[in-house]
Amino acid sequence: MPLLPAGLRRLHDAGEPCAILVRTPNWLGDLVVATGFLAALLERFPRAQVDLIVRAGFEALPLPRRGTVLAFDRGTASAGAFGKALRGRDYSHLFVLPPSFSSAWMGWRSGIPWRIGTRGEGRSALLKPAVRPRHAPRSVHLLQEYLDLLAAWGDFRAERFPPRLDATPAWLAAHAPAGLPWRGHPVVLAPGAEYGPAKQWPAAHFGALARALSGQGWDVAVVGLPRDRELGDEILRGVRAGFNLCGATTLAQLTALLATAALLVSNDSGAMHLAAALGVPQVAIFGSTNPAWTGPLNPRGRVATRREPCSPCYARTCRFGHTRCLNELAPAGVIEEAERLLLAAPKGDRPAAGE
After folding, report:
1. Is 255 helix (H, G, I), strand (E, B) or coil?
2. pLDDT per 10-residue tile (average), the chain, 355 residues
3. pLDDT of residue 352
4. Which end of the chain is less congested by CB atoms within 10 angstroms, N or C?
5. Bridge partners, residue 96, by sequence
């Protein structure tokens, strides 16, 4: 064991955790990235209970755990009240993955003896220990930042613990959307991005991609939230076999649908990380964000990005108003990358000649 800071040394010397609670991230994509951390936790502590706190709405996902999932709804309980309600559950360790003050406050109110999280946001006094980051902000993958919270027990690397979902064949069959209008494996497009327009490739570019792949015989489905419905219609205009499923699936159904996809093309979004955790071939399009920090950890994944002098800016909207990083990322390159991945698809997944 290398020399550890005093707080981590005390954490290590306190003994093995017996009952662990993990406060998972609030963003869907970050939650899926954190499944790699959960896998490492389960491997390192094979006899410990591992329960999860998730944002309400995410509890249906097949997340790695060895215990229960507690849904936190900010509309019905404050972080402090939710934390106080955890008292008496006899957890020995709480891992606080979100960097927010409210997440640490929830932990402090719980009274759990060890509350491990990254220092910052004025929350160090609420954590025990408050871990000093090992890397400069956004200089390593987000998963590695989470794994660094396990430094008291070893060196855990993102390459060894990629994100994964416990989506068994039985789980996928139980959550598969009924009455899908295609045979086989579609190409799925996810043009939305909850974060903001600086992460969204233009609809016209997605439309060019949809027409190109539909012309090769592929069924094309667009997925997203109900508010993305008009965007889906715009993308599929002129597409031979196009299906707009925006707002038509639950999160669990979307996950099961993605598991059947021949390919996903998406922005940096929750759908992107779901596909990566399922091992689905994918092209991930990056604008204002940095694939080195939040890119898909998927051997079957590719990234399409155009670097500008101002990028990555991590902004929700382009402060210059041009969003060149996405507007000038031409469809031709994304189509070419998509075609390469589809050529590698098993023969049974491809459309028959003449379709």
Report:
1. helix
2. 84 94 97 98 98 97 98 97 96 98 98 97 95 94 98 96 97 93 90 89 98 96 97 96 95 97 97 98 96 97 96 94 95 97 78 56
3. 57
4. N
5. 23, 117
User: What strand order describes the sheet that includes 49-55?
Assistant: 69-72, 49-55, 19-23, 93-96, 114-118, 130-131
Pairing of strands 282-286, 301-305: parallel
Helix (H) or strand (E) holding 44: helix 35-44
Exposed e or buried b for every residue in 226-247, given b needs 16+ CB within 10 A?
eebbebbeebbeebebbbbbbe
Rounded Cα gap, residues 200 and 177, in angstroms: 26
Give me the pLDDT at residue 344, please: 87
What pLDDT is stored for residue 180 in this prediction?
86
Query: Buried b vs exposed e over 201-216: b needs ≥16 C-beta within 10 Å?
Result: bbbebbbbbbbbbbee
Residue pair 127/112 in contact by the 8 Å Cβ criterion: no
pLDDT of 2 reads 65
Spell out the alpha helix ranges (H) of 216-310: 229-236, 251-259, 270-278, 291-294
Q: Which amino acid is at 40?
A: A
- Which domains are delineated in the chain? 6-153 (3.40.50.2000), 169-349 (3.40.50.2000)
The pair of structure tokens assigned to 337 is 């990358």
Q: Residue 104 CA to chain centroid, in angstroms? A: 22
How are strands ordered across the β-sheet holding 220-222?
A: 242-244, 220-222, 187-190, 263-267, 282-286, 301-305
Instruction: Report the DSSP beta bridge partners of residue 51.
Output: 21
Strands of 128-181 (E only): list them.
Answer: 130-131
Q: What is the pTM of this model?
A: 0.95
Separation of alpha carbons 261 and 275, rounded Å: 9
- pLDDT, residue 348, reads 58
pLDDT value of position 4: 86
Comparing CA positions, the residue from 193, 318, 317, 331 lying closest to residue 266 is 193
